[in-house]
């Protein structure tokens, strides 16, 4: 920790009168850094646009000069593509229809991955998906996609029956099961998709802010005992950063996996 | 000292998914130990279970800050 960094962290953590202010949801309200004709642009908005540029640039560069013996970049691109296609799309959707959905799943995976990893990139250090508004469109597109796929495969009423009536059940128990299945398969899914990604990014980033600002406040408190705890807090912050690296990948994987599972379930034949 | 009672509930709510996720991965590990070649199949199932168990807590995190 350099001597200039700690006062900067402290001034960010303190409310001005020298008292430590714990980070909360307001830590995520960043001030706008640019103003385009009355439209204020904040850091996460810029980061999301940048992520689109990164994803498009990476995929174009990786696939531009495709050769039989792949170069390094082409190999990396093919590894990610193969991972999404084989371990998610083909496993969950099945061999017949999966290729139609691979482009969407692949771009979804890369987009979420890049946006999540902003959280630990030095200087950027803000996971843009800790703002829930950016995830809602992804969940809505996924919702429309799997419902659309189901309607395409079974027809509107066929899909409704497919999604809400569990196989092998008959009689009055259906009165109980059909509303439950409708709620869980149609209504709740986009919410859990959104909240899972948002909650993980939000909680992870909050934890990192807490360890950094809290550690800095303890270190500069002037008390030796507090200082030791402050060092411990910085150490824990580093450990949590590694945990976050795992969680960020896992959340991108899980979002894509669930999207492909929902599509696969909507397309599945009657059982 | 001030704060929201919600956060105490958040801590309590973490117990359930914590136990659940532990059980899921314990089953995953013993499954792989018994049959190492089934790892690929078990992994995606384990992660799916982990995600579903975790969802409960994540919803609580969101609600703790919203309400």
TrEMBL record, chain B:
Give residue numbers for the site Reversibly protonated during proton transport. 54
Name where it's found: Cell membrane; Membrane
Domain of life the protein comes from: Bacteria
Transmembrane segments in this chain: where?
Answer: 12-33, 45-66
**Record-linked Pfam families:** ATP-synt_C (PF00137)
Cite the SUPFAM superfamilies for this sequence. F1F0 ATP synthase subunit C
Q: Which InterPro entries does the record associate with it?
A: ATP_synth_csu_bac/chlpt, ATP_synth_F0_csu, ATP_synth_F0_csu_DDCD_BS, ATP_synth_F0_csu_sf, ATPase_proteolipid_c-like_dom, F/V-ATP_Csub_sf
> Is Ion transport among this UniProt entry's keywords?
yes
* Membrane topology term: Multi-pass membrane protein
Cellular component, GO, one term: proton-transporting two-sector ATPase complex, proton-transporting domain
GO molecular function: any one? proton-transporting ATP synthase activity, rotational mechanism
Please list the residue ranges annotated as the V-ATPase proteolipid subunit C-like domain: 9-67
Hey, which family's this protein in? Belongs to the ATPase C chain family.
Summarizing the function annotation, the protein's role is: F(1)F(0) ATP synthase produces ATP from ADP in the presence of a proton or sodium gradient. F-type ATPases consist of two structural domains, F(1) containing the extramembraneous catalytic core and F(0) containing the membrane proton channel, linked together by a central stalk and a peripheral stalk. During catalysis, ATP synthesis in the catalytic domain of F(1) is coupled via a rotary mechanism of the central stalk subunits to proton translocation.
What is the protein's name according to its record?
Answer: ATP synthase subunit c
**What is the organism field in this record?**
Nocardioides flavescens
């Amino acid at each position: 920790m350099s001597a200039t960094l700690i006062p900067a962290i402290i001034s960010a953590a303190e409310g001005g009168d020298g008292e430590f202010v714990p980070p909360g949801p307001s830590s995520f309200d960043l001030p706008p850094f640019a103003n385009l004709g009355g439209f204020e642009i904040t850091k996460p908005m810029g980061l999301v646009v940048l992520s689109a540029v990164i994803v498009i640039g990476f995929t174009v560069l990786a696939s531009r000069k495709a050769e039989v013996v792949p170069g390094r970049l082409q190999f990396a691109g093919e590894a990610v593509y193969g991972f999404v296609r084989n371990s998610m799309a083909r496993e969950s959707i099945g061999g017949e229809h999966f290729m139609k959905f691979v482009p969407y799943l692949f771009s979804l995976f890369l987009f979420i991955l890049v946006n999540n990893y902003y959280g630990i990139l030095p200087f950027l250090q803000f996971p843009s998906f800790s703002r829930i508004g950016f995830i809602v469109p992804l969940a809505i597109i996924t919702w429309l996609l799997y419902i659309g796929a189901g309607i395409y495969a079974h027809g509107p009423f066929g899909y409704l029956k497919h999604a809400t009536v569990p196989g092998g059940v008959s009689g009055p128990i259906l009165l109980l099961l059909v509303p439950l299945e409708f709620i869980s398969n149609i209504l709740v899914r986009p919410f859990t998709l959104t909240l899972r990604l948002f909650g993980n990014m939000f909680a992870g980033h909050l934890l990192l802010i807490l360890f950094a600002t809290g550690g800095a406040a303890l270190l500069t408190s002037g008390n030796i005992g507090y200082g030791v705890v402050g060092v411990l807090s910085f150490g824990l912050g580093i450990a949590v950063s590694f945990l976050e690296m795992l969680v960020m990948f896992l959340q991108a994987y899980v979002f894509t996996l669930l999207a492909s599972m929902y599509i696969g379930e909507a397309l599945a034949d009657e059982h | 000292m001030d704060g929201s009672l919600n956060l105490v509930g958040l801590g309590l709510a973490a117990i359930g998914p914590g136990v659940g996720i532990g059980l899921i991965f314990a089953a995953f590990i013993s499954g792989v130990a018994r049959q190492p070649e089934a790892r690929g199949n078990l992994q995606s199932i384990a992660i799916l279970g982990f995600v579903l168990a975790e969802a409960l807590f994540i919803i609580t995190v969101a609600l703790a800050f919203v309400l």
